[in-house]
Structure formats: structure tokens, C-alpha cells
Design a protein that fits this description.
The chain is of the alpha/beta class. It is about 25% helix and about 30% strand.
Length: about 100
């Protein structure tokens, strides 16, 4: 299992997410999506090549990078993926399953 972190946020402790899999950062902290989106889209798609039903997304960083990542994963995995949601009160991650085709 792998936890794909959408973008590195310096100083943020993500060690609690290790219980859900190995951590892999898709986009470094300083990179941003600007006028030319394709280099970042390619980087994210390449980083997600092995994504499957056992893996998770941890959404952090630039909202545009988060949106691109969710779009790519949804396309690759038939609209299904899992997220890790941080609960501030409990100070823990909770898994959330997304299926955009389930009504």
C-alpha cells in the first residue's frame, strides 16, 4: 500500500499516515501549476502509474495540484479512490472511499 501525497508541505508532520502505507510525494513543495500545466500533469501521472485500490491519496498543498491528482486517479481507477482525511479533534487520519459513479 502507498499513500500518495499530492504536494510536499514543508514542516508538516505526516508520520501518522505511515500506518496506511509507504509515503510518496508527487510534487515537491516549491513547484506550482502556472501557465504551462503539462509538465506538472505529466509528473503527477508518472508518479501515479502504480496506483490501485489499496492505495490512498493524502491531499495537501496547491488546490490546483490536488484537483489534477484527483482527476488523474479517478480516470485511471474507474472513478474510485481512497483519501486520508485529518481529524483535528482526534488528531488522526480517517480513510474515506470515493466512487464518483456510485449514486
Amino acid at each position: 500500500m502507498t499513500v500518495y501525497i499530492t504536494q510536499e508541505v514543508r514542516g508538516r508532520d505526516l508520520t501518522d499516515a505511515i500506518q496506511f502505507g509507504d509515503l510518496q510525494i508527487l510534487v515537491p513543495a516549491k513547484e506550482q501549476i502556472a501557465y504551462s500545466t503539462q509538465p506538472t500533469v505529466r509528473r503527477i501521472a508518472k508518479g501515479l502509474q502504480k496506483f490501485d485500490d489499496d492505495d490512498y491519496l493524502l491531499l495537501s498543498g496547491d488546490p490546483a495540484i490536488i484537483g489534477v491528482t484527483c482527476s488523474i486517479v479517478s480516470d485511471m481507477n474507474n472513478g474510485k479512490y481512497k483519501l486520508l482525511k485529518w481529524d483535528r479533534q482526534e488528531k488522526t487520519y480517517y480513510p474515506i472511499e470515493i466512487n464518483i459513479f456510485q449514486t
